[in-house]
Amino acid sequence: MTPDDERLLRRALELAAAARAAGHAPFASLLAGPDGEVLIEAHNTVAADNDISAHPELKLARWAASELDPATAAGTTMYTSCQPCGMCQGGIERSGLGRVVFALSTEQLTALKPPAPPLALRLDGPALPDEAGVPVAGYYL
Predict the structure, then answer these.
(1) Cα 125 versus chain centre, distance
(2) Which pLDDT value is given to residue 119?
(3) Domain range annotation of the chain
(4) CATH class of 3-111
């Protein structure tokens, strides 16, 4: 980790503290371009937006995917207060961002929170794979 990484990660932590002070969940992120310049900042607005996807990491990944060319995205680093969750990690990977630097790991964050109830999502499938494959076949060629 470079001194610039530490400076930018501390900025993400400042944004997280400001988010909490403003009544939001205490999570924030920023994107720094290949030259180290901050391109955009965001904080968690899940409650304010009534939107379960309003994590700062996902908001910035969506911004990067729509606003940055692939080469710039690949040279861009996300600095974030906590390790991205699975939803956010998927968005980050698809956005083409090249690197993520986070402060708290998922395990460290979990230790700071009350226990969560177990998830009860039931997945059934695959179902109708022959039919489901028809609209997809050939798309990725």
Answers:
(1) 28
(2) 83
(3) 3-111
(4) alpha beta
